[in-house]
Amino acid sequence: DDHTKYCYVYLLRSKDEALSKFKEYKLEVENQLGKTIKIVRSDRGGEYDGPFNDFCQQNGIIHQTTAPYSPESNGVAERKNRTLKEMMNAMLQESGSPRSMWGEALLTTNYILNRIPHKVTGKTPYELWKGMLPSYKYLKVWGYLAKVAVPPPKKVT
What we know:
The protein is mostly helical. It has a single domain (15-130), classed as 2-Layer Sandwich (Nucleotidyltransferase, domain 5). Helix content is 40%, strand content 5%. The longest helix is centred in the middle third of the chain and has 21 residues, at 75-95.
């Protein structure tokens, strides 16, 4: 979101999942936050043609696309992707976690970035998007080993 700087990340197996994940995002935005998506901006990837465009038109969403071969015209998204990737790589390297954990590292990176103040707004994206302060209760150092306490089974009498 350009105003709040709040970011959603979805892990896709293929680009064909872009529309179904966008529908999932749209439902959450409308049902949980009471907001309406008015404009979506994307590059000219094939996953945004056909059904994606049709869905946007049917739902009154303006689909803006970048100029061909000019990622700089979608600078906000490109910069966010770079920040996410750099932070994800740092987390994997620092923790010694295998590269196969990239998805978990990426989701955690996004979780953190949504909960720290943004230099432009001075507030957390979470606060601006959801209207309340984020909780840091469950924020731990990523990639460290942890023990899970499993309670003993309840006795049936």
